[in-house]
Amino acid sequence: MELEIKIKDASLPEQYLKEVKDLIELGGKRLNHRDDTEVSITFVSDDEIHQINKNYRNKDRVTDVISFAIEDGEDTKILSMLADQGIPRDLGDLFIAPNFVFKRARDLGHSVERELGYTVIHGLLHLSGYDHTTSEQEDEMINLQEEILKSYGLQK
User: Is 110 marked as binding a ligand?
Assistant: First the structure.
């Protein structure tokens, strides 16, 4: 997968960037995305993700990850046609607040690696069309998420 990473008003130690890249690659393979499929991740401050959450989701609080899927409800025939023409597939953008993720890892007693991995794969699944609005959807998404994290060696 083609991954663009931007770090804006946030700090993310180098060791975690490799994990993010590896997980996107692993998740993309597990989800059968083509090698030229594109994803963008921007790491932002808690204040910035709070503003994004407020402006786009009407939720006045900090969160760990927000996804903006490009293909929401896209016709699969159009996607197939674009693939046949060699046009890369762009799944969309993730915004992640690493300080919030690190705090949440401490609060839940998880390793930072596990919580960051959870956040990245959860966002990738949303960009790939998965959701958790019904219990059936949630079961499918969480099971797939845990399978990917486990195959990377990240467990609770």
Answer: no
Task: Tell me the pLDDT tens digit for each residue of 4-35.
Answer: 999 987 788 888 999 999 999 999 999 999 99
Angle between helices 14-30 and 135-152 (to 10 degrees): 120
Q: How far apart are CA 39 and CA 54, in angstroms?
A: 23
Instruction: State whether the Cα torsion 145-19-60-38 is positive or negative.
Output: negative
Instruction: Let me know if 97 is exposed, middle or buried by CB neighbors in 10 A (0-12, 13-18, 19+).
Output: buried
The whole model's pTM is what? 0.90
CA 84 to chain centre: 26
Flag whether 33 is marked binding. no
pLDDT at 60: 97
One-letter amino acid at 120 equals V
Tokens found for residue 20: 């993010």
Interatomic CA distance for residues 59 and 5, integer angstroms: 25
Strand partners, 69: 92
DSSP conformational letter for 70: S
